[in-house]
Amino acid sequence: MTQRTRAALYLRVSTTRQEEGYSLETQEAGCRAYAAQHGLDVDEAHVYQEVFTGVELWERPQLTRLREAIHRQQIDAVICYAIDRLARDPVHLGVVLSEADHKGVRVEFVTEAIDDTPEGQLIRFVRGYAAKVEHEKIRERSLRGKRARALSGKLLAGGSSLYGYDLDRENGVRTINPSEAAIVREIFRAYVTDGVAMNDIARRLNARGLPSPTAHKRVYADARTPTWRQATIRNILLHEAYIGESYAWKWQTVSRNKAPVLRRREEWIALPKDTTPPLIDRATWEAAQRKIETNRGEHARNRERPALLRGLIFCAVCGRRMWVDWYHKRLYYRCPAKTLTGERCGGVIVQAKPVEEAAWAHVVACIRDPQLIERELMAATPQLDQQVIAEIETINRRLSQVVRGQERLLARYSESESVPWELIEREVARAEDEKARLRADLVQLEARRAGHNIARRQIGSLTAWCERVTANLDAMTFDERRRTLEVLALRVFASGFEYDFRLDPQVF
Ligand SMILES: [Zn+2]
User: pLDDT for 138-167, tens place per residue?
Assistant: First the structure.
């Protein structure tokens, strides 16, 4: 049993001129044909014909009615002829698409399948972006309250207590927990004065059967008791609260399933001096920091570093996505041709460090001078346009040939009675069919051209993005760099020490 899918049609023309050559009739016919083809039932009460006057969303009364219908879930789908019929402004498009997504209403475009074309990517991007903005807004509202409390000089009421202290939630201050405070002092003494390794300190505390700081906070599914670990010791040694410094707004919740991350130091909010009574003297605490810092360097040198270009680097010879590989503690990118096919493609293994440096330098140069990206994009779109224009010309030529052929037939008929009328009739009908097909092709091509125009309009917002990012370029963490490369859709084609970089941010 299939359920009926109620579809609305949204058609729009401009009053100033018949934009891009699609009339209301063309749009309506296209949408109805699409509905029939895809098993959607057009709900006649929800056919919206807009004669466009204003620029803003609310200046389009029919679109407002359609949005109401979406909101009330009176329809299951919206059919629109082309993306720019629904909205030319990507922000407006985002608003409508996310409202529809939210209500489970499908939005479909007759001339543009949401696939891997630039327009499809644009739609996906806009949808994702709008959803993200909405999520950010909700998060921001709940954070504002917490921040206000921190600024008023109180520890967060919802915060967890720190080992060595109890939390006086009412007054927003810490008080000393004598038995835990003794352990904190012991840990500092063992690490700084006696030179015991963090691992060993943890082991000794476990041997004594002391509950770890998380013992009463975390519940494990397998009823395991949390124990002291190297990281537990390390966190205690690093904590500034033990010398009486208190901060709020230190930790940021990224997502429900991930551990919170430390905010940047500048964002922390210092709380009044009497918020936390000190347990350790400053000299001992600072000695501990220096010792940890020294050990950190060794630790980092031994650890495998992440691959910046993972998934973004391709073999310049065969085009395959390269694999990340380690030889003698060094990171490389390698073409998988040999592994996959048993035969080498001729591409040379790529050392990670130089190619990553070159790639990042390329991206930085582009962001500092967004015109570089603009030029790359502009260089690509006219070619597409040329191609489309050439196809349009070909079709127009064929159309006039068909029309001339029809005229010749009719002329022949009027000249001599020897040609039977049935034959003429059939030929004329055939020509009419072909004309209809050609006109449909033309409509498709015009829509593609409109899509290119949309892509080009995104360049403005790309430039604005670049300006925002420029200030942070040098301080970016690995993850931020990764995200930047992904936003700009960097592709590296490499072999040995030969690199070619391409940016393709048409989804902006
Ligand atoms: Zn290859």
Answer: 555 556 666 666 666 666 655 667 899 988
CA of residue 315 to ligand 1 center, whole Å? 5
Q: How is residue 226 written in tokens?
A: 């949390």
Q: Give the model confidence (pLDDT) of 317-361 as tens digits.
A: 998 888 888 777 788 999 888 877 778 899 999 999 999 999 999
* Element holding 501 (H helix, E strand): strand 498-502
Q: Which helix (H) or strand (E) holds 412?
A: helix 371-415
All structural domains of the chain: 6-135 (3.40.50.1390), 165-302 (3.90.1750.20), 308-508 (no CATH)
Please calculate the CA angle 88-91-93 and round it to the nearest 5 degrees: 55
CB 174 within 8 A of CB 276: yes
Ligand 1 centroid to residue 336 C-alpha, Å: 7
Question: Which residues have CB under 8 Å from 468's CB, separation 6+?
Answer: none
φ, ψ dihedrals at 74, nearest 5°: -80, -10
Q: d(Cα 155, Cα 160) in Å, to the nearest integer?
A: 10
Q: What is the pLDDT of residues 304-319, one digit of tens each?
A: 568 899 888 999 999 8
In the reported structure, the alpha carbon of residue 483 is separated from the centroid of ligand 1 by a whole-number distance in angstroms of 26
List Cβ neighbours of 248 (8 Å cut-off, separation of 6 or more): 149, 150, 154, 155, 156, 159, 268, 269, 271
Q: How far is CA 27 from CA 15, 48, 105, 112, in A?
A: 15, 11, 20, 13
Q: Measure 328 CA to ligand 1 centroid, in angstroms.
A: 22
| Distance from Cα 316 to the centre of ligand 1, integer Å | 7
Instruction: Give the percent of the chain with pLDDT over 90.
Output: 18
Q: What is the mean pLDDT of residues 471-487?
A: 80
